[in-house]
Structure formats: structure tokens, C-alpha cells
Amino acid sequence: MIKACSRIALLLSLLLLGGCDYLLFDPKGPIAQEQMWLIIVSFAVMLIVVIPVFFMTFLFSIKYRDKESTAEYLPDWEHSNKIEAVVWTVPLLIILVLGVITYKTSFSLDPRQALNSDQPTMRIQVVAMDWKWLFIYPEQEIATVNEFAMPINQPVEFLVTSDTVMNSFFVPQLGSMIYAMAGMENQLNLLADQPGEFRGLSANYSGFGFSGMKFKALAKTNSEFTDWVDQVKARPRVLDADAFEQLSIKTKDHPVEYFSSVHPLLFNRIIEKYTGVQNGQ
Prior knowledge:
The protein is 38% helix and 22% strand. It is an alpha+beta fold.
């Protein structure tokens, strides 16, 4: 019975793990690369406590079993300076190491910090909606829904806000999750160092259509990105006031859309709508 239960538990574990992916351990940019090593190093440091616990669990169960036990019986034992030293010193050292790592990466991985590059920084404005993502390119004067493209090896500054409840913008293979909040502008700097199509998602539950609030992140060469922009500009649709009002209607599993033109102040107006600036003018 024990063997059968063990096999069933193992099979169920494999089935559960079969639905997992490892996007955080398949970085496609320097930020995601550094975050991956941060996860690995932190996990390895914490294993200093976990591994001895598992080892001693099996050791004690064998050494102090009821039958054929040769372990010394010490009913009056209650204290050991050596054990106390280990119990207190090891956790303190782990906390110290993790504290130093956290302090350094809090600055090196600050999402607002501009990335060092010879290429100029491109800007993309991101708006979380119900339940879709709007991407505005102020320099190219185009807009897309549930898809954005970026040139490889060029830093991109994402300006993130929300036209609805709080949400979060996350491309695991590029790194750094940032919250989208109405009336606020958050900054996120990312860079892709190889071409590909990466999965983007919302990492904060925001209602009925949350499960379909996904988008495509396309990393392209400079020529491919130029062609992509030209294709979007060739589309007949324009993101004017009527189109934005229609886009604001709640939808689930919204398809990718392209807009050849967009008002340059749309992103600012979305933020001001929740700060009262427009009402005061």
C-alpha cells in the first residue's frame, strides 16, 4: 500500500509539473539574465539551511528508531554551546548575505534606471484596459492592442499606466514586472538581445477577463522593426476618440489590433482623467 501511494504521488507530481514552463530561466535580455542569477543565488544560499534539515530528518529517523538502535540515551541533556553557535551563526550569515545581495540588486535592477547602451532609448506607452493592453508609440505615432514590437539591442523605456483597476505588466523572458495604476505613470526599462516572440501577461488579477489578458512581445532586427511599423501605418484604422471609447468596452480574449495613427497626448489624457487635471482646466 505504501509503495502504491508513493507511485501515485510521484505520478501526480509529474502531471502537475507538466503544466509548468521555465520562462524565468530562459532569459532573452540582460535584465532577465541578471534576475535569473539572482533567483539561483538566493535559492542556493537558502539551501544551506534546507539541505541539512532534510539530511538530519532521515539520519535521526534511522539512528533513533525503536528497534536495533545503538544511539546513546541522554535523558538529562538540554544544552550544547556548539549547537547553539551553529543554530544562530548560520541563519545570521544567510541573512547577511541575502541582505547584501538585496541591497545591490535594488539599485542595479531598479526598473526606472536607464540601461547603458550606444543605441538611443525608444519609448513605448502602455495602458492596461479591461481586459487588454494598449501600446502607443509616440515617436512612430502608431498604436497596437495586445502586441508590441521592439528592436533588438536597443533599450526601450515603457511608461505604464491603467485606464481601469490596478494591473501589472510582465514579460518574463525580458524581466521585471511593473504595476499599472490609474492616474499614475510607472517606468520600466528593458532590452532584448535576440530576436523572437515572447509571451507577455498580466500578473495581477483584475476581474472576469483576466485569464485572456495576454499579449505578444516581438523582438526584431532594425529592418524587421521598420517593416513592422510600415505595416501598422498601412492599416486604415485610426485611434481617435470614438475608437478609444469603443476600445474601452470590456472584452475578453481581445484580438490583436493595429492603428495607423494616434493622438500624441492620448497617454497623458488617460492619466489626467484620474487626477482631476482635466476637470480643473
